[in-house]
Automatic annotation (TrEMBL):
One of its GO terms (molecular function) is acyltransferase activity, transferring groups other than amino-acyl groups. Residues 24-160 form the N-acetyltransferase domain. InterPro entries: Acetyltransferase_Butenolide, Acyl_CoA_acyltransferase, GNAT_dom. It comes from the Eukaryota. PROSITE patterns: GNAT (PS51186). The lineage of its organism: Eukaryota, Fungi, Dikarya, Ascomycota, Pezizomycotina. CDD domains: NAT_SF (cd04301). It comes from Lachnellula occidentalis. This is N-acetyltransferase domain-containing protein. It holds the Pfam family Acetyltransf_1.
Length: 169
């Protein structure tokens, strides 16, 4: 994967560094009712999932050096995960900000940082994501639009629900 990129907005950090990712924190978030599309899985599987993706981790920075003592890094409070070749295609999934940090513009900032990052890829053909409804947020922040199906576009999107899905067709 590419060299890590970081963005700061006191007291928060967004980073693509895989060394900051906290699989246990991501798995804990998967337990939340807010992440209705996910469920907790084995931590080794979460680690593998994160390693195979370009992740934008959202972190709460410590307020003082004394609060760093004994910690291995800042607390992970959000994530946006891209399944990508980092050249031509990116599939966005697992976007969240923990409930206690919502309403601070952090989700918007997370997607803006992701957008700035992928728009540096001159050969990017498509960004895709799945959502259960028309989502004006992603339309505004990423410029995505519902994919036109049928004869007019000549293209269709196909999917299949897997054994690990918590969603139904």
């Amino acid at each position: 994967m590419s060299t890590p990129t970081e963005w700061y907005r006191d007291p928060y950090l967004i980073s693509t560094s895989s060394s900051l990712l906290q699989p246990a924190a991501v798995n804990e978030a998967f337990k939340s009712d807010s992440l209705y599309w996910a469920k907790p899985i084995g931590e080794s599987l979460v680690k593998k999932m994160l390693e195979k993706s370009l992740c934008f981790g959202l972190y709460e920075l410590p307020s003082s050096t004394s609060s760093i003592a004994g910690k291995s890094g800042p607390r992970q409070i959000g994530l946006a995960r891209l399944i990508t070749d980092e050249v031509s295609f990116a599939y966005l999934t697992d976007v969240y900000v923990l409930d206690e940090f919502q309403g601070k513009g952090l989700g918007t900032w997370l997607i803006e940082c992701l957008e700035a990052h992928v728009m540096k890829w001159p050969e990017l053909r498509r960004i895709m994501l799945l959502t259960d409804h028309t989502n004006k947020f992603y339309e505004d922040k990423l410029g995505v639009k519902p994919f036109p199906q049928g004869v007019k576009s000549g293209m269709s999107i196909f999917s299949r629900i897997g054994l690990g899905s918590v969603l139904s067709d």
